[in-house]
Amino acid sequence: xxxxxxxxxxxxxxxxxxxxxxxxxxxxxxxxxxxxxxxxxxxxxxxxxxxxxxxxxxxxxxxxxxxxxxxxxxxxxxxxxxxxxxxxxxxxxxxxxxxxxxxxxxxxxxxxxxxxxxxxxxxxxxxxxxxxxxxxxxxxxxxxxxxxxxxxxxxxxxxxxxxxxxxxxxxxxxxxxxxxxxxxxxxxxxxxxxxxxxxxxxxxxxxxx
Length: 209
Fold this sequence. Notes:
Layout: H1 2-16, H2 18-24, H3 32-41, E1 50-54, H4 62-68, E2 72-77, H5 80-89, E3 94-97, E4 109-114, H6 123-135, E5 137-147, E6 152-158, E7 161-167, H7 170-179, E8 182-191, E9 197-204
């Protein structure tokens, strides 16, 4: 019941809680070591790293940090109010109001990011997201996303609203990455240097194996 209800309601929930999310979102940039690692592995096919930020939210602090590092940022979010705040906060970035599920922008990027966003999707919706990641990555490009520690569901809170999270097993994520020619560079479970986030970083291989 929770899976069906909360997975389907995630966009409307963030639409409703956008202002509260912006106010309460941790902006200490504890994510910086992983973002630096992400950029260090990303190719620069057009001089600057082109980043696709899936579930970009308000753009602060992550997309702001990427812009400050001279990346070219495209933010995508299914919640219209999040996109409006992103555009207000980061007028130099491109913002697209779209659901990440089934996304096809018809272009590729050096890096794709799904930080604290992908794990709101149901298991059935997470599986095809690996095709979305690969479709939008240039050869040699990198994808970084966060998950739970293992198979299971969890509930969190944004403002007055409950939000749903789910994770597959690490082995299943490795299978899904490999099936799209994405090679794991680094995976840390509950990284103590990143507020106990579980993070994946993978590269699109130059040729399928």
